[in-house]
Design a protein that fits this description.
Layout lengths: L3 H20 L11 H34 L4 H12 L2 H17 L4
């Protein structure tokens, strides 16, 4: 049976072994990591995020304009979503929806 002192000594040795492993870690250059390249990727993503935000704001403005003219923004969004689908996929989806709605008495 181990004594408390020997358990502590064992834990300290494990801790030193882990620290030693960390000290032997490879440098970014040894791992083929380029700080400049990483920074370029990050900056490109940040620019695209800004553009995405701007486009999202533009879409909201168009929907607000349509709503101001009496159109339903919700219906427009639904139609846009449907137009993205392949016509056959859309028909299949609509058929399943009709089946389910009929089954629960909505139609």
């Amino acid at each position: 049976m181990e004594t408390e002192s020997s358990q502590i000594d064992g834990q300290e040795k494990k801790g030193r072994a882990r620290r030693g492993q960390q000290e032997e870690a490879f440098t970014p250059k040894e791992m083929g990591v380029s700080a400049e390249e990483i920074l370029r990727f990050i900056e490109r993503i940040e620019r695209l995020e800004e553009e995405k935000s701007s486009l999202s704001d533009d879409i909201k403005d168009v929907l607000a304009e349509a709503k101001g003219r009496g159109y339903s923004a919700k219906a427009l969004r639904a139609i846009i979503k449907l137009r993205k689908l392949d016509p056959e996929e859309r028909r299949a989806s609509e058929a399943i929806q009709d089946l389910y709605m009929n089954a629960i008495g909505m139609i």
